Amino acid sequence: xxxxxxxxxxxxxxxxxxxxxxxxxxxxxxxxxxxxxxxxxxxxxxxxxxxxxxxxxxxxxxxxxxxxxxxxxxxxxxxxxxxxxxxxxxxxxxxxxxxxxxxxxxxxxxxxxxxxxxxxxxxxxxxxxxxxxxxxxxxxxxxxxxxxxxxxxxxxxxxxxxxxxxxxxxxxxxxxxxxxxxxxxxxxxxxxxxxxxxxxxxxxxxxxxxxxxxxxxxxxxxxxxxxxxxxxxxxxxxxxxxxxxxxxxxxxxxxxxxxxxxxxxxxxxxxxxxxxxxxxxxxxxxxxxxxxxxxxxxxxxxxxxxxxxxxxxx
Length: 314
Hints:
By secondary structure, this protein is mostly helical.
């Protein structure tokens, strides 16, 4: 190869290298490149280009959406702390944004991803619960409110199961009064969960041990009224029949209010909770806790595609 030919090859290579490293020339170019990288799963590169858009074109009409998608990319990349920080910053900077329902829902999802087993710290469950509830309350007409309602039950089940485990710990330690308080609170807070049925059955057992037949009957009757399909319904019915001589003497209507009134208000539900040692808490009485198998998994939701939630599940 002659010197002239070699110089030509170097020139072509240099031009190609220069073209490959050329920065996008507009906010739209940054946006399209970042979206393509996002769809390809190259979330780190997508974040870099969304940030490039923000750095070079901070007043672009695409800037606000780019901020949301940076946080979404962190979420898709399983970087929940970074995603929470990004979404939270967005909430502070854009208090009137139309994206706020989505952002609140995504913060809830981030916290839900970090939830631990019910016999461990429930801070993430409480945070997810709070964000989902806020989306439902503040944006009731948003499609994200419907999706938040679906996810809220998962958090409530985890929190209720934690309370059930604490109550089991107290019973194991011989402190049935403390167990009763936790079970009553569980029923007040989470009566829409299966764990509430277990709590009511345990309350009936506690009251029977204390020879408080009227309160035991109210506990079993509440289980039958609110959780008729639960597998503890039949044992509760048998126990109720043993306590009440005639079927006509069974409590009429919803017995829950009477049960709570007879039990008294033991503590303020908003007061700080003093937990039993985490290592001692078990669920399902003395069986070590394990991750519960839910009826659904984390939603297969990609906000990049439509900007709206969908109901496809993994």
